[in-house]
Every structure is written in structure tokens, then in C-alpha cells.
Amino acid sequence: MPVPDLYIRNATLATDEQTFVGGIVIAGERIAEVVTGNPERPASQSIDATGLLLLPGLVDAHVHFSEPGRGHWEGFETGSQAAAAGGITSFVEMPLNAHPPTTDTASLALKQAAAAVSHVDYALWGGLVDDNLMHLAELQRGGVVGYKAFMVTATDFARSDRRILKAGMEQIARFGSFLAVHAEDEAMTLELTAALRASGRRDRLAWGEGRPIEAELAAIDEAIALAEATGARLHIVHVSCAAGIDRISAAKARGVKVTAETCPHYLFFDVDDLVRLGPVAKCAPPLRSPDERDMLWDRVLAGEIDVIASDHSPCLWEEKAAGDDDIYAAWGGISGLQSTLPVLLTEGVRRRGLKLSELVRMTATGPARLFGFDDRKGRLLAGADADLVLVDPEAEFTPEARDLFYRNPHSAYVGAHFVGSVQRTISRGLTVYQEGRMIGPSGHGRRLDGAGLRDAASSEKRLFRV
After folding, report:
1. Counting Cβ atoms within 10 Å, is residue 462 exposed (0-12), middle (13-18) or buried (19+)?
2. What DSSP line would sit under 272-318, residue for residue?
């Protein structure tokens, strides 16, 4: 019997169920054994991880790498490097801000070609827009793992109204897939924003005043009602407020197949930070009040969030700086791939008592389960892919622009103080990142193909515990 390749020993392991001292034995690309305690195990290489956390590699369900067409904003080469530096070993890339967006077979082929350079494993979302209902089945056959729709107008990505959402949900439900929605009410946000701009408001506070919590809740209610009527699975992305989570939790309780996602920036920043930092902290939905951030944390600590994802949405610095004097002129999105773990370890584990098992559930096991590949990803389990991240939980650091692997190294998180530094990231048994340096080769990442995932009924049982 061949000797395993690597034994990581004497770490603090965290799964979605428990935390314990132990180790992982890796053979080839898979986990061969999960070890409790610190026994001897034969291996070609051994790492003593005393004092370090050993977690399953994160699965980021929501990133924008902008290729094809906008590779000058970000690309799969730099984006996947940043993912590895953040302890992310699998990501799922959105159909926008690519140009063209991923809404038919031709655009999917372009996206797949661009993604082939990835340093870590990945999957792709397909888009639902106002004129591509006839293309959804071909996207499914092409391997997308879910579909994304906007309930408000977005750049190069047409809004889906109630009719399109309903028709899309009906098709997607038949595929055994699910629909994710950006939930903000179009009419309300347009009317409020127009009134603010007509009055001469261009200041940073005006951004959030034109996109209030009420607009988010109205859209969440509409999406849930459509999911309830069609029987479709629904995922609400980047929920920014506690009341939004409450609406989703209530729908779950009455049997609606809906899941909730929030983002690190809603848990770390508030509207005062938008005023202080400027357009680099502009996003949609907008940052909320400090009290609202604390209430959202209450929902996190209560176990009501299914997924925490970065919503990494980069651009050129000039497109942020354009909003210095007119907040509407700035691109809206926060670059955050490398910050998810530090935010949750600092604000969650250190300051608020978040359990490591819950961190793992929301950032690794939960998102893997959402897409149906939790037999391979997001878990410390014999037979699963050896996707791991070693973290020094006591290391304090302040990120600078030079520390970022993004194509455009700017982020609202630059200058913040964190605890919990990623020391090593392992993707399918290969170290791809170690102590500030990329180790793994371009193209190591493999595409996770939605066409080969397990059946929908099995996914729903794991997601909704039915």
C-alpha cells in the first residue's frame, strides 16, 4: 500500500459540526483519513500545525471576475489567486460583469475558455434576463450550477420583471436547479433616487437613502411569493438587513425552498464607513446603519444565514474615484475575496463568540451544499477533495494594497485591523498559496459541472432538512 503524501497533524480542526484537535492525511487529491488527537501516521511529508486552525477550504458562492470582456477589472488568473490567498478553494462565478454576460451557449463557451487558467476549482452561474428564456435549457446542459436574476436594472444585464421571474423559475425548477436573485424593488429605488438627484443630492448618504431597506424587503417578498407559487428553489443573495433574513426564515418555516446569503461587508462596515471611506465602500444593497449591522449579526449568531459570500465586485480605481464628488458616478461593488475569513474571525469569532463550526457551515459546507457538491467540497471527510486552509488565529495584521492579489489592488478593507491570517491553502492536495506567495500553477483549478451534480431531491433534503 503506497504511503500517503501528506499528514497535517496536531491542528485545531473545525467542521460544520464540531471542533477538535487532530489532523488530516492526504493521499493524492483526496482526504484519506481524518485523525483525532496526535497519533503517528506514515506520510511522505508531515506538517506540525500546532496552534493553527485547519478548516475545509472555503466555497465562495458569489464572485465577479468580469471575463470575458472586462478582464481589465479582474480576471480568472488574478481572481483565483486572490481566492487562494483568502483560503477559498472553490468559487462560483456570476454571469455578470462579463461582457457579454453568460446568458446563452456562446457566452458560456467564452466564459469557460476564460476560466481555464484558474488556480483553484470553480463553477459558473448562468443568467436569467428578459430575453433568454429559450436559452436556459442549453445553459443547464452546458454545466451551469445555478441561475442569477436582477430585480433592478444592472449594467449590461437586463432586469427580470415578475413575468420573467415566474417563467424562469418554472423552467429552472424542472431542471432541478435554482434561481438566485438580487432583491431590490425597481420602482421604489428609481423614484427615490430620481427625487434625491433632482434636489441636488450627490453626497454619499444619498446612495443609501435611494435604496432603503423597504426596497429590499419588497423585492424579497415578491421573490418568495413567486417561489412559493412555482415550487422553485430560491436563493436571496447579499441580504443586508435583519428584517430580510426574518422574511426568509418565516418562508422556510412554512415550507418554501429558500436560502439566505449575506456578505462580510454588511457585517464589518456600516453607512458611517461609506461616508468616511467614500466610493470604495459603495455597494448595492448599500451599507446600513450600525444598529442594523448589529441586528444582522444577531441573525448570523442565531444560525439563520445559509451562506456568507464575498460578492467580490472589482473595477478600475478610476471608476471608484469618479464618485468622490458624485456618489452616483462611482462603480458599485466591493473587492473582498481575501477578507472573508479575517472578517469572520475578527468580528465573529473573536468579538462576538461565533462558533468555528458555524463559520465553516456558512462559508464552506453550506455553499457546497447549495450547489450539490458537498460530497466533494466544503467538508473534512475521508474521500472528499483535499481542499484545506491553515490559519493562524492569533496573527494580527493590517492589509495594504500591496498585499492584494486583485488585478486592481484596492479594497475598502485596506487599513482595517484583523486577527486570523491564512498561512497555507491546499487545493486537491496541492499547496497553491503559502505565507504571502502563490505556489500552485495557473490552470490547476477544475470546473465543477452542474450537469453532473446529484439529483435535486437529495440536495433539497440536505439544504432544508426535510
Report:
1. middle
2. HHHHHH-GGG--SSPP--HHHHHHHHHHHHTT--SEE---B----HH
For 164, 189, 461, 465, the CA distances from 253, given in Å and listed in that order, are 26, 29, 15, 12
**How far is residue 28's CA from residue 338's CA, in Å, rounded to a whole number?**
27
Cβ atoms within 10 A of the Cβ of 106, count?
12
Tens-place pLDDT, residues 29-44? 999 999 999 999 999 9
User: Phi/psi zone of residue 136: left (φ > 0), alpha (ψ -120 to 50 degrees), beta?
Assistant: alpha
CA dihedral 276, 281, 287, 292 (to 10 degrees): -60
Residue 303's contacts (CB-CB under 8 Å, 6 or more residues apart) are: 358
| pLDDT < 50 regions, the chain | 466
C-alpha cell at 298: 444577531
Q: How far is CA 24 from CA 46, 83, 225, 414, in A?
A: 10, 22, 45, 33
Nearest to 128 by CA among 70, 167, 184: 167
How many Cβ atoms sit within 10 Å of the Cβ of residue 378? 31
User: How many of the other CB atoms lie within 10 Å of CB of 273?
Assistant: 19
Give, in order, the Cα–Cα distances in Å from 417 to each of 342, 345, 420. Answer: 9, 12, 10
Q: Which amino acid is at 56?
A: P
Cell of 338: 481575501
Report the alpha-carbon distance of residue 207 to residue 383 in Å, rounded. Answer: 48
Between CA 324 and CA 326 the distance in angstroms is 6
Strands 30-36 and 19-27, sheet pairing: antiparallel
Q: Evaluate whether 273 touches 412 at the Cβ level (below 8 Å).
A: yes
Give the separation between CA 446 and CA 334, rounded to whole angstroms. Answer: 26
SS3 329: helix
pLDDT of residue 458: 63
CB atoms within 10 A of CB 152: 20
CA distance 332 to 314: 9
Q: Are strands 30-36 and 388-397 parallel, antiparallel or unpaired?
A: unpaired
Q: What is the pLDDT of residue 466?
A: 40
CB-based contacts of 19: which residues, under 8 Å, 6+ apart?
Answer: 12, 13, 355, 356, 357
Evaluate whether 125 touches 177 at the Cβ level (below 8 Å).
no
Phi and psi torsions of 441, nearest 5°: -85, 155
Nearest CA-CA partner of 320 in 334, 335, 307, 331: 331
- CB neighbour list of residue 394: distance below 8 Å, 6 or more residues apart: 51, 419
